[in-house]
Amino acid sequence: MIRLESVSKVYKGDVTALRDASLNIDKGEFVFLVGASGSGKSTFIRLLNREETPTTGKIWVAGKDVGALSGSKVPFLRRNIGCVFQDFKLLPSKTVAENVAFSLEVIGRPRSVIRTQVPAILELVGLGDKAERFPNELSGGEQQRVSVARAFVNRPLILLADEPTGNLDPATSVGIMRLLERINKTGTTVVMATHDRSIVDTMRRRVIELEHGDIIRDQSRGVYN
Amino acid sequence: MAMNLDYAVRETWTNLRRNIVISIASVLCVTVSLSLVGVALMARQGVERATQRWQDGVEFIVFVAPDASSDQIDAVGSSLEANPLVERVTYFDQQQAYEEFSEMFADSPDMVETVTPDILPPSYRVVPTSTDLASVEELVQQYEVQPGVIQVARSTEAIVAIKDVSDFLTGWALGVALVLLVVAVLIILTTIQLAIFTRRREIEVMRLVGASKAFIRVPFMAEGLVQGLVGALLAIGALRIFQPVFENSLPSSDQLVLFSEFTFSGVDMLWTYLLLGGVGAGIGTAAAAIAVSWFLDA
Q1: Predicted model pTM
Q2: Residue B205 and residue A107: Cβ atoms within 8 Å?
Q3: Exposed site from A73, A225, B87, B254, fewest CB < 10 Å?
């Protein structure tokens, strides 16, 4: 599903965010990316959905050579990738249902699909009764559920999560992780960058640790360190 | 990919409403600049029509009686051609005179109906070698007395003056209009940048979930298009109101020479309106396209 071949990313000013990284992530895997701030986790995520292109090396995502993808094809790649962020990135002027519907609307899905998919996904994330609320009326955990619903409503092959529990208390975080686990069970590949030791240690999934842009550990059913 | 028309219309309308003040500024700037372009074009067309027969250095016209014999007509012609003071002579027969008349009075079909080719005088349009007043006057006097000639019409100073003034004014008006058009483009560009900035979070989400660039672009381009087009429509409206004033304030036919009137033909005006509409729509869309590209490709 995801394949990196000697991938390096060097930013302007000779900052190496990722150095000679090679790995495979299979369909349906759940992978934690761990490491200190600035170790290259975010760059790793941004390379996968082509917000960045690799300086050298090749990346395949969902069967496509991401680096060689022309600008006009990038949106189609991203339709296969759902993204969840620490700061939720919800639109404050839209209701919960509108926020989720928006992501289908802007990729041209027909209204009939939107009408059936949005309530179904809100039910799945446990927000069936909050569809008409606005984001600022929700708790952080609920907002993150909306964001997960938006990322997953189009049934992507891959879900990328960049510190999705970074702004949440431990109990709420557990709820989000259960949700991600459920999504993973449907066959969706999940890649999650995190600092949350207890989550990683509890879930015992594959752990890839980065340090100064190097992959220093790749362990199945691993722990935080 | 199916672009949801409903979506584009809704987003465009929201954008326009959200930035209503600066949207109005863009529209008015387009209106003022295009009105000026329109006035300049109208003035030019009007003057050209009024002075149609005095183009290309024609200094005087020898009208021959409609019932003059062909010998008399030919005699006047050959005399003109043989004259060393004459550089070029063009003969206008009755049919051509009729066509010219119809064209000049295209907006008064009643008038055209009362006229048939056989009552209009054929004429010689004369370009003399020298435009010196005295020598032209001498030629005029010489041909006024030729048999068959009913009148010799001079290009009057009024015509020369009106052409000069018109050239000067249209030149300036077009220059100022051009500057204002640039200003209009900049204002629209800023308006769209503002709209984009207001919606940057939405755009960020759109990019993340895989909306195509076209999809992101279209509402903003439509916003620019609407601003340019509304500005152009207002300008056209202003010109329509302004047109009779324009026509009445300029020299009427009797102050000029035979058959010349300061009017605008429907066809000319239609082209002017189409041009203004096209320019308005064009600059609006182009300015918006630039603004969106700056943002999306940055």
Answers
A1: 0.72
A2: no
A3: B254
Decide if A83 touches B, using CB distance below 8 A.
yes
Nearest to A106 by CA among B21, B159, B216: B216
- Which chain B residues touch A103 with a CB distance below 8 Å? 205, 209
- As for the ipTM of the complex, it is 0.89
What is the predicted pLDDT for the residue at B208?
Answer: 92
User: pLDDT averaged over consecutive 10-residue blocks of chain B (298 residues)?
Assistant: 68 83 91 90 77 69 81 82 81 82 73 79 81 75 80 71 76 88 92 90 92 89 94 94 72 46 70 93 94 86
3-state secondary structure string across chain A? CEEEEEEEEEECCCEEEEEEEEEEECCCCEEEEECCCCCCHHHHHHHHCCCCCCCEEEEEECCEEHHHCCCCCHHHHHCCEEEEECCCCCCCCCCHHHHHHHHHHCCCCCHHHHHHHHHHHHHHCCCHHHCCCCHHHCCHHHHHHHHHHHHHCCCCCEEEEECCCCCCCHHHHHHHHHHHHHHHHCCCEEEEECCCHHHHHHHCCEEEEEECCEEEEEECCCCCC
Could you give the C-alpha distances from A193 to A83, A85, A126, B14, in angstroms and in order? Answer: 12, 10, 24, 37
Tokens of A139: 């708790």
- Quick check: A136 contacting B, CB < 8 Å? no
Yes or no, beta carbons of A49 and B208 under 8 Å apart? yes
Taking each helix axis from N to C end, the angle separating B200-209 and A96-105, rounded to the nearest 10 degrees, works out to 60
**pLDDT for B245-297, tens place per residue?**
766 665 554 444 444 455 666 777 888 899 999 999 999 999 999 999 998 87
User: Between chains, do A75 and B205 touch, taking CB under 8 Å as contact?
Assistant: no
Considering only the beta carbons, identify the residue of A71, A72, A91 that sits closest to B201.
A91
